[in-house]
Amino acid sequence: MLLTDRTAVIYGAGGSIGGAVARAFAAEGARVHLVGRTRETLEAVAGDIKGIGIKDAEVAVVDALDETAVEEHLARVGDIDVSFNLVSRGDVQGLPITDMPVDAFLAPVINGTRANLITARAAARRMAERGSGVVLTLNSGSAHGSPMMGGTGPADAATDSLVRNLAMELGPRGVRAVGLWAAGIPETLTVEKLGKVNPDLNEAAIQGILDQLSSLRMTRRNPTLAEITATAVFLASDHAAGITGTFVNVTGGMFPG
Predict the structure, then answer these.
(1) Three-state secondary structure string covering the chain
(2) 7-185+224-249: CATH homologous superfamily?
(3) Tens digits of per-residue pLDDT, 105-134?
(4) 239 confidence band (pLDDT: 50, 70, 90)
(5) What does pTM read for this prediction?
């Protein structure tokens, strides 16, 4: 197994991608700490992990935007090998930038940058003391530019830059900083999920979006959730020891880079 006896803290572990990553990490031998704002969804993921007989998962209700809460939680966790930020940012999409309220545009930029900074540096300080560790994050790769995406592109650009700068500072101390680009994963594009971003969407509209997304990819197919989690496991493992300061593109070639 690739992550035997590693301790991984997963922020946003109650979400579709976060929960899938947590299950994949546990299946590869990691001790997982599930962190988020909603205990019910976190407990459901913990139940999945325990139910398949891997190992227990620790649950903590912590707001990743609260620096004190994040620091106090990591102090309880102790040694940490992997930190993965997958928290939602409050993205609002479906409107031209010229028509979008300023606060709606800025929400993902401010929330995403703050959450990634707080969680990454809290973990990285502890990792650097031990001389090893991996800081991971995920965004959509929209920094390249996409219409009707509001503040998603600028928020992704900020995260991209943060990862590169963290990697430069932390590399000499044995810590890697890496991200994933993933966009339009079918298992996560449901009415329940997307309705929070754009309340006008229905099942037919979502299928139309998926068809359009697949046509924009070099592979002409939408990546699966399993492909995202397999990539995350690899990046968290020693097999990716030479990878830092970059984002691994799992968009099926939707964006170059």
Answers:
(1) CCCCCCEEEEECCCCHHHHHHHHHHHHCCCEEEEEECCHHHHHHHHHHHHHCCCCCCEEEECCCCCHHHHHHHHHHHCCCCEEEECCCCCCCCCCCHHHCCHHHHHHHHHHHHHHHHHHHHHHHHHHHHHCCEEEEEEECCHHHCCCCCCCHHHHHHHHHHHHHHHHHHHHHHCEEEEEEECCCCHHHCCHHHHCCCCCCCCHHHHHHHHHHHHHHCCCCCCCCHHHHHHHHHHHHCHHHCCCCCEEEECCCCCCCC
(2) NAD(P)-binding Rossmann-like Domain (3.40.50.720)
(3) 999 999 999 999 999 999 999 999 999 999
(4) very high
(5) 0.92
